[in-house]
C-alpha cells in the first residue's frame, strides 16, 4: 500500500504541472500512463472502487484537456485509460447483476468516446500523413467491443448502426492507405 501512496503523490505532482502548463502533451501523457499503473495496483490489491475512480479520473483528465495537449502521443494512452475502465466495468457488471445495466452503459459510453478519438486527425499529424496501422487496428477492436456490449444490452439498433459505421471506417481507411 505504501507504493500506491508514492504513485498517488507523483500523480498529484503531475496534476499540478498540468494545471500550470495545460498545453504540454508530455504532462498529459505521463498522467495517463501513471493512472494506468495506479489503477492496476489497486486492482491487484482487490480495491475495485479505487481502481475505477483512478480510471474515471484519467478519462476525465483527457476529456478536459486543452486541445493543444491532444496529440498522437496522448491519444493512445487515453484509449488505454478507456480500455482499463471498460475492462473493469465489464468484470464488475458480471459480479453485480443489480448494477449490470448501469455498468454496461458506462462501459459503452467510454468505448464510444474512445472511438471518437479516431475520428479526428491528431494535432501533430500533418495532413497527407499515412494513418498508423496500429490506430486502424485499435479502432477496429474498439468498434467490435461496442458491438459486443450493444448486443449484451439488447440494443439491436446500435448493433446495426455500429456495424455500418465499422464498414464505413474500414472503407475510408482503405482509401486513405491507397492515396
List the helices and strands and how they pair.
Elements lengths: L1 H19 L4 H20 L3 H16 L8 H24 L4 H17 L16 H21 L2 H23 L1
Treating each run of at least 4 consecutive H or I residues as one helix, how many helices? 7
Nearest-angstrom radius of gyration? 17 Å
Oligomer: single chain
The chain-level structural class is mainly alpha
Task: Give the SSE order as H and E letters.
Answer: HHHHHHH
How far is it from the N-terminal to the C-terminal residue, by CA?
Answer: 52 Å
Largest sheet: none
Count of DSSP strands:
0
Strand content: under 5%
Outline the structure in words:
The protein has 179 residues and is mainly α. It has helices spanning 2-20, 25-44, 48-63, 72-95, 100-116, 133-153, 156-178. Helix 1 (2-20) packs antiparallel against helix 2. The longest helix is centred in the middle third of the chain and has 24 residues, at 72-95.
